[in-house]
Amino acid sequence: MVAFGGGHGLAAALGAWRRLTDDLTAVVTVADDGGSSGRIRREMPVLPPGDLRMALTALADDGEHTREMSRLLQHRFGGTGVLAGHPVGNLVLTGLIELHGGDTVRALDDLCRLLGARGRVLPMADVPLDLVARVESTDPDDPSRTRTIRGQVAIASTPGRVRDIIVSPPDPPVNPAVLDAIATADVVSLGPGSWYTSVLPHLLVPRLRAALADSPARVVVVLNLEPQPGETDGFSPEEHLTVLRAHLGGVALHTVIADVDSVVDRCGLLSAVRECGAELVLAPVAELDGAPRHDPARLAAALQSAVGAR
């Protein structure tokens, strides 16, 4: 199976999928321009490493040695010097990419072997991407006005709903390994995660979208537990799905998974799911402590139900 996304949302999905299969490929967004990743991509001719690092550690083996290695890769340097805020893994991955002459996939495969990863991690594009969005104005005296915002961090932190989003460059190169993984997948998953900056960008890359449209795989969408401030303020689950549907471009949806306790209007969501030609799986997938995070074991049970329904 192939899981698309980035950040904590993709890590949650991988934590669930790894309970169901070892034949797992994470296809990770490469548009991060903030924090350590932003600093590295401005200083080095490499992909932003942060989301790739998080996917790697999400797939790491559970052995004592690899747990220690994962903690090391996730550790951020403290202090106020030039290394402050950099996770060790970002620097290790960047160093490996440079050592391999810019070959990101080879560097990722090396780290997968080092971590005993249950699967493979690949970048969604071979070049760093920029996101460009039109964001609705929050000025009540000018509700029709929109602003063009460039950059993942700026989009996520700008008040107002995102109206639409594109990637730059508009048709980036995609590694053949990614296209091969999609072509041979039985299941593809999208979400959870930042809807406009981690989930939708995969559908904005023409080669990825075309590969998904041609794939015989079952496409499973995992909806977020709540709206994300600054990006999807006030969005209901069905609004998330409506936005996704507008970006599918020929990609079929088969199953939509939503947390049973996060859905207020079940009839509205069911109607939106049926308009996509998909089936709805309502299940308890959130953490038991009430935190707005997906529980890997509970999400795995819902995914198993979705895959078994094929």
Q: Beta-strand percentage?
A: 15-25%
DSSP strand count:
10
Q: What shape does the CA trace take?
A: globular
**Helix count from the secondary structure assignment:** 14
Secondary-structure element series: EHEHHHHHEEEHEHEHHHEHEHEH
Q: Please give the order of strands in the largest beta sheet.
A: 3-2-1-7-8-9-10
Distance between termini? 14 Å
- Tell me the major beta sheet: 7 strands, parallel
Q: Work out the radius of gyration.
A: 19 Å
Helix content: 40-55%
Arithmetic mean pLDDT: 93
Q: Helix- and strand-based class? A: alpha/beta
Question: Which blocks of ≥5 consecutive residues have pLDDT under 50?
Answer: none
Annotate the secondary structure layout.
Blueprint lengths: L1 E4 L1 H11 L7 E4 L6 H9 L6 H9 L5 H11 L13 H12 L4 H12 L4 E4 L6 E7 L9 E5 L1 H6 L4 E7 L7 H8 L3 E4 L4 H5 L1 H4 L1 H9 L3 E5 L14 H10 L8 E5 L6 H10 L3 E5 L12 H13 L2
Parallel strand pairs: 1-2, 1-7, 2-3, 7-8, 8-9, 9-10
Antiparallel strand pairs: 4-5, 4-6
Tell me about this structure.
This protein has 310 residues and is an alpha/beta fold. Helices cover 42% and strands 16% of the residues. The chain has 14 helices and 10 strands. The strands form 2 sheets. The chain has a 7-stranded parallel sheet with strand order 3-2-1-7-8-9-10, sandwiched between helices. Strands 5-4-6 form a 3-stranded antiparallel sheet. Strand 9 (255-259), helix 13 and strand 10 form a beta-alpha-beta unit. The longest helix is centred in the last third of the chain and has 13 residues, at 296-308.
Essential attributes:
seven-stranded parallel sheet, alpha/beta, 310 residues
